[in-house]
Design the sequence.
């Protein structure tokens, strides 16, 4: 009986284990990776883009600091100062017989207490120039961030479509190997039936071996492409991922809308313009060295021998003082004049950079648009070439079986089909790349 009970308990436990395993949900497969997903992940993991983001945010904070520099500053100063006595008497303070003097004449008493709140403000051209420079640097950092983003997008697009291209070329290589295997069987059957020479079998095998090597190379290229993209997508470059299904390629937008978008949203031009504004701000700051600054100060608190609002016999310790200071620059060995000239020289160089960026924009716009237009026009031709190559291979195979063509004709038709299919893949990638470059230039991607 005891043995039967043990067996029943074990069976029950096994049943519970099987039921729990059956109820455990299977892990969900990773969602296919779209181009937008790849760009988003790359922006998280790419260090150069992270540095550009940090620089843009830091420049925005520096801009706030420059504006705060024009506002009054408030400090609360506390200090105790002890000075050795010179053991010489001074005029008697009411209520006391005599008072010792400090050994340092700059100090006011043996025991001196400071507890003061001070408000200070400096008015000058340098503060205004600092704000303009900070504004220009913030604008330039923002433009540089957009340049870094677009550069990263271009890299991701290239790697993404390279992975897709290698995936499709691997399919082409596998299909070509299957065709070569089938043709080897055909030549062997014809040789057995004394309808073909053994040389046909040898030629078919040579073609088969070449297809096997091409398939191995295609698999290796696919793995390399996935690793290159994986470095940007996740901490583990070897992590598996699947690309989303390819959508129909979008049509090329009209040239007028592309021109308008590129001119309105080009970070290279904005960066060059911000550099010009920064040079002008530096020039203004150089002029500040030739002009006076006005400094204002208001202090309220205690500066007395006692740390108290009132001294002996009700002497008032708590009070205020105010000052206004203006410094007129007279002579600095022409240093300020030279700084102004230096700023003018650098500003002239930034103007050249700005015009060069504008010319480069026009050239890139024309180049990318023409590239995308040509690639789009060739898509239909590439599709037709693949269709013709497949039909040619089919007809050549039929003619070979009927003894109307040679083995060389079949191998040549196979090679033509492989070349046409690979060219079709390259043509589609070329169009996507050209279109992505154009969208990146206009800020649409």
Sequence:
């Amino acid at each position: 009986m005891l043995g039967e009970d043990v067996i029943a308990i074990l069976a029950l436990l096994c049943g519970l284990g099987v039921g729990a395993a059956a109820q455990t949900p299977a892990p969900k497969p990773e969602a296919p990776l779209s181009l937008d997903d790849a760009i988003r992940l790359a922006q998280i993991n790419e260090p150069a883009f992270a540095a550009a983001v940090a620089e843009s945010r830091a420049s925005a904070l520096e801009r706030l600091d420059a504006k705060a520099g024009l506002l009054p500053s408030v400090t609360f100063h506390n200090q105790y100062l002890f000075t050795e006595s010179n053991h010489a008497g001074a005029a008697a303070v009411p209520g006391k017989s005599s008072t010792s003097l400090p050994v340092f004449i700059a100090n006011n008493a043996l025991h001196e207490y400071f507890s003061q709140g001070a408000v200070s403000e400096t008015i000058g051209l340098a503060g205004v120039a600092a704000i303009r420079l900070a504004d220009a640097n913030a604008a330039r950092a923002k433009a540089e961030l957009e340049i870094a983003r677009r550069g990263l997008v271009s890299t991701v697009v290239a790697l993404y479509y390279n992975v897709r291209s290698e995936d499709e070329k691997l399919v082409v290589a596998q299909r070509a190997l299957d065709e070569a295997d089938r043709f080897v069987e055909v030549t062997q059957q014809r040789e057995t039936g004394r309808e073909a020479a053994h040389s046909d079998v040898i030629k078919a095998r040579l073609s088969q071996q070449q297809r096997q090597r091409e398939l191995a190379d295609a698999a290796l290229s696919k793995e390399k492409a996935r690793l290159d993209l994986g470095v940007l997508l996740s901490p583990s470059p070897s992590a598996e991922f699947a690309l989303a299904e390819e959508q129909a390629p979008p049509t090329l937008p009209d040239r007028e809308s592309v021109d308008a978008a590129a001119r309105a949203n080009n970070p290279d031009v904005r960066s060059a313009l911000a550099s010009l504004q920064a040079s002008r701000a530096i020039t203004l700051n150089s002029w500040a060295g030739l002009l006076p600054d006005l400094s204002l100060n208001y202090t309220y608190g205690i500066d007395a021998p006692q740390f108290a609002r009132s001294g002996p016999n009700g002497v008032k310790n708590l009070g205020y003082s105010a000052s206004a200071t203006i410094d007129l620059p007279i002579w600095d060995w022409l240093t300020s004049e030279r700084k102004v000239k230096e700023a003018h020289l650098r500003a002239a160089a930034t103007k050249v950079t700005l015009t060069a960026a504008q010319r480069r924009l026009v050239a890139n716009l024309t180049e990318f648009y023409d590239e995308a237009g040509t690639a789009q026009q060739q898509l239909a031709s590439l599709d037709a070439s693949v269709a013709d190559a497949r039909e040619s291979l089919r007809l050549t195979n039929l003619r070979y079986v009927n003894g109307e063509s040679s083995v060389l004709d079949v191998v040549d038709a196979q090679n033509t089909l492989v070349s046409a299919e690979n060219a079709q893949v390259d043509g589609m990638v070329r169009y996507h790349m050209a279109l992505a470059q154009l969208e990146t230039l206009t800020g649409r991607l």
Summary: The chain has nine helices and six strands.
